Known about the structure:
Distance between the termini: 31 Å
Strand order of the largest sheet: 2-3-1-4-5
Number of helices: 9
Number of strands: 5
Radius of gyration: 16 Å
Number of domains: 1
CATH topology: Rossmann fold
CATH architecture: 3-Layer(aba) Sandwich
Structural class: alpha/beta
Amino acid sequence: xxVWINGAFGAGKTQTAxxxxxxxxxxxxxxxELIGYGIHRMLPRSARGDFQxxxxxxxxxxxxxxxxxxxxxxxxxxxxxxxxxxxxxxxxDALAESGAEVRHFALLAAPEVLRHxxxxxxxxxxxxxxxxxxxxxxxxxxxxxDDRFASHIATDHLTVDEVVETIAHSTGLxxxxxxxxxxxxxxxxxxxxxxxxxx
Length: 199
């Protein structure tokens, strides 16, 4: 099973995916951004833009995820913002054609909640800034309400643990590890955030 965790920037996709990974047996996190950054590194800066606009990103993501599902016996977790209907349909159709079972979730939150979350992320605290992500909020929030992006999970008043448990219940995946205590949970969140600062 492939579990795609969608959402605007700041919705909690990465934290949710890695906490779900910690609590599930034999799961794997597959991050499509890595393919995008590889494409960017091969292009001159003037040609980079949004890597999702490159057809080779979309085809590579679908083909690679299909390969991962074929070789990995456990759930495959994919944290990735994908809000353009054409791109979403292209990737989801390709995954369906490959025979992959895909469960899709969109983490929703109000724009003001997302702005607050982004303002407290490590990138912002260390001066890297989140200006690009901030500018995408309204576009992402509006797009993700479309029925094609169901199932929707409103996260404004949910903890990461509650989002993880909602996804596990909906997919029938058994959580084998318990919630972390408050202190360990904060440390793990910082560790996951630090590993995913994009430079």
